[in-house]
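FIELD: query
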Amino acid sequence: MNIIIVDYGMGNLHSVKQKLIRLNVNVIISSNPKDIEQSDKIILPGVGHFGKAVQSLQQLKLIDVLNEQVLIKKKPILGICLGMQLMAKRSDEGNCDGLGWFNAEVIKIEVQNRLKYKVPHTGWNQITISKPSKLMNDIPDFSEFYFVHSYHFKAMDLDDVLNESHYESKIVSAIERDNIFGVQYHPEKSHDVGELLLKNFIKL
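FIELD: result
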């Protein structure tokens, strides 16, 4: 089992790597397309600005190889935080197109009660599980994961929604279709339940 963490200059690369090493898998951090081709599974992390992330993926010539490995070869991929958002068609952050793997857009979190709900949404929040998934094996409904984000994923196809969370209103906190998985929260920062999610991804 070889897992690659895609390095495009934005993300919690090393904390994700350390979690995976603890789970006894071979893991590398790389921006080399050949490493992506030779991997069994892909993790696309990310923290930061959507537009800059797309620009970085373009400059590193990673978009074509990701499309080939994920859409054609059906290699399992897990997007984390910005990595999940990049799977949408477009984002208001940078006003640019994403990978387009999901019929979705990424929009700014809007709240009415600014005393109770802050943007960015930072800290622990519960998830509800919207459909059966191997990624969620042994993870109970209402488990708590750690979030840090100012924009959220608006899915046009509700069948793609795997988790939802409540932050004044409902937000999509995980997505899944076929071999493509994304989580808005950070499993690498979510203690035992986050480690369990990564274990489930390894077992896919």
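FIELD: remark
Helices lie at 13-22, 33-38, 50-59, 63-72, 82-85, 191-203.
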